[in-house]
Amino acid sequence: MKFLGISNRIKFFSLGFCIISFSLQAQTAKQVAYGDDFVFNLDYETSFEAFGPVRYKDYFAFYNPVNFSIKLFDQESLSVASTINIAQEGPKSMYQSTGLMADENDIYVFSYYKQSAHAVNEKGRESFKYIFKQEENTFGAYLATGISMASVNNEYIYIPIIGGHDIKTMLADYRFPSIVRINKSDSSVSTFLNYPKNYKNMISGGLQGFISPTLNSKTGSLIVSYPLSHTVFELTKNGLIKEHPMKSSAIDDFDGHYYKSQSDIRGQKSREKYLENPSFSRLHYDAYSDTYWRFVNLPLTYSQMNEEEINEAETRNYKVVVFDANFKKIAESDILKDINLTLSAPVVFSTEKGIHVYAKNQGNEDEMRFKTLKIK
């Protein structure tokens, strides 16, 4: 019997390794693709500033700040099926509510001024409420945006708290817990998750502090994404904290967001730092595919930064990185130019058709259009 020479055996082994590698890539490599647009048919009252949608029973619910109402859209026709007008005066009213969330049985609106969540009945009045403001603490408040969504399940309500801001120094204050958890059974309040260590750097403005939590409906864990962190943090039902790297090829580091000295801080410059440097945007858990979608704010170009008026909603581009249930990266998209993930944009949501993200082009005033992303 003749034996292969060492060099031939190495070549044979290398060839076999390459074949196995390509085979594994073929099995695991996935792509982010577009599906059909998801379009809501608006009535004459609902504005593009409506907060939502959130799933509530057989409806998609939007909170309409123009006339303080909740619009319930039929999930098949995507047209308004009914309206809940939020009481603005009298007992159990909710003056100037903001934000919206829902569980299996109730739909809630928020009060920014009272830092409270109010369950709403069909007459638009409060049926019960939860208070999450803690007077003894000086950390920031809950601001209801499409990024900083409150989350709720049968046991807990999770409220993301945005860091405070020192008016004198112009520095953001991220020394305090960023998640408030309300136990629905006894209304007790607990706090979790200080901002990551790199938030001790000099950061001005609040845009880098809008955290994005998403609730895994299967495990009951809350996964929290910080704009300036490659790592996401998992808060389990038992209060344990786990860390998971969820990186994007679009972000090497976050050094461009930091100031070297306090004398460099200028009000307008803080927004420029946010626009001209990459950061993480929204994090969304899709129960249909059991995957996590982490969006990336791509930096504006030099020419975009030199425009007389910078409109982030029109100019900002994005990417999305997709991870499986074990936080293993399975796909990263090309540049996404036709979606809007700014603070004022509606929430990211999912159906069996894919992940739905607010479209940049909202040319028809009778429609609210979402682009659909899916894995193939």
Description:
Pfam families: DUF4221. This is DUF4221 domain-containing protein. 11% of the residues lie in helices and 36% in strands. The chain is mainly beta. It has a domain of 257 residues: Neuraminidase, CATH 2.120.10. Strand 26 and strand 27 form a beta hairpin. 38% of the residues are buried.
Strand content: 35-45%
Quaternary state, please?
A: single chain
CATH architecture of the domain at 32-52 and 140-375: 6 Propeller
DSSP helical segment count: 4
Termini distance? 49 Å
Spatial shape: globular
- The whole-angstrom Rg is 23 Å
Largest sheet: 5 strands, antiparallel
CATH class of the domain at 32-52 and 140-375: Mainly Beta
Helix content: 10-25%
What's the total count of β strands? 27
Main structural class: mainly beta
CATH topology of the domain at 32-52 and 140-375: Neuraminidase
Descriptors for this entry?
globular; Neuraminidase; DUF4221 domain-containing protein; single chain; 36% strand; 27 strands; 376 residues; mainly beta; DUF4221
